[in-house]
Design a protein that fits this description.
Layout lengths: L2 E5 L2 E4 L4 E8 L7 E7 L6 E6 L5 E3 L7 E6 L4 E6 L8 E8 L15 E2 L3 E6 L1
Parallel strand pairs: 2-11
Antiparallel strand pairs: 1-3, 3-8, 4-5, 4-9, 5-6, 7-8, 9-10, 9-11
Length: about 120
């Protein structure tokens, strides 16, 4: 079975930065649509950002201009650089992958066939 493992989460103060990583095994991200999702306590899981095989990126309005998604195909690793963090960014962050195109409904959970277990991000005021 495909394995996705997130890392890089932690606790930071408002205005700080974190970089999340998602390492994949069993397949490569090349040719896939890959994405980051997050889920706060008592909230629904929402799409944060995605990147396609052509390098095209998409972001939720709430993180646009602050977060950057990227991938290193050689390392088979997905990244999420998070700057200017706010308390409302506090959530469990998940990476996901699908063989479908990011031009589809990338922000919907059912678009993805592979998920990691998540890494916690906590931003204090």
């Amino acid at each position: 079975q495909v394995q996705l493992v997130e890392s890089g989460g932690g606790s930071v103060q408002s205005g700080g930065s974190l970089r999340l990583s998602c390492a994949a095994s069993g397949y490569t991200f090349s040719g896939y649509c890959v994405a980051w999702f997050r889920q706060g306590s008592g909230e629904e899981r929402e799409g944060v950002a995605s990147i396609g095989s052509d390098g095209s990126t998409r972001y939720a309005d709430s993180v646009k201009g602050r977060f950057t998604i990227s991938q290193d195909n050689a390392k088979n690793t997905l990244y999420l650089q998070m700057n200017s963090l706010k308390p409302e960014d506090t959530a469990m962050y998940y990476c996901a992958a699908t063989y479908r195109a990011c031009s589809g409904p990338w922000s919907r959970t059912w678009w993805y066939n592979s998920w990691g277990q998540g890494t916690q991000v906590t931003v204090s005021s």
